[in-house]
C-alpha cells in the first residue's frame, strides 16, 4: 500500500489529483495554505494502491507516494 505525502504549501488547489485518484482518497481541505489556496489532502491512505496517477498529473510537483517498507516509489 502507498503512503501519500503532500507539500500543502506548494499546492495551488487545481484538483487534478483529486479528480484522477481511482480510489477517491484525495480530497480538498477546508483550510487554506500559506498562499491562500485550498490544498489536497489524503484520507484513508490505506486504500492507496501506489498507481502514481496523482503524482503524474500534479503540475506543481506536490505529491510523493511511498511504500511503508520500501521508501518512495
Break the fold down into its secondary structure elements and pairings:
Elements: E1 2-6, H1 16-20, E2 26-32, E3 38-42, H2 53-57, E4 63-67, E5 71-72
Descriptive key words:
single chain, 73 residues, alpha+beta, three-stranded antiparallel beta sheet
Give a short summary of the structure.
The chain is of the alpha+beta class. The chain has 2 helices and 5 strands. It starts with a strand and ends with a strand.
Description:
There is one protein chain. The protein has helices spanning 16-20, 53-57; strands at 2-6, 26-32, 38-42, 63-67, 71-72. It is an alpha+beta fold and 73 residues long. It has one domain: Alpha-Beta Plaits, CATH 3.30.70.20. The strands form 2 sheets. Strands 1-4-5 form a 3-stranded antiparallel β-sheet, with no helix packed on it. Strands 2-3 form a two-stranded antiparallel ribbon. The termini are close together.
Tally of separate domains: 1
- The CATH architecture designation is 2-Layer Sandwich
Report the CATH C-level class.
Answer: Alpha Beta
Indicate the proportion of strand residues. Answer: 25-35%
Radius of gyration: 11 Å
Q: Class by helix and strand content?
A: alpha+beta
Distance between the termini: 11 Å
> Can you count the helices?
2
* 3D shape: globular
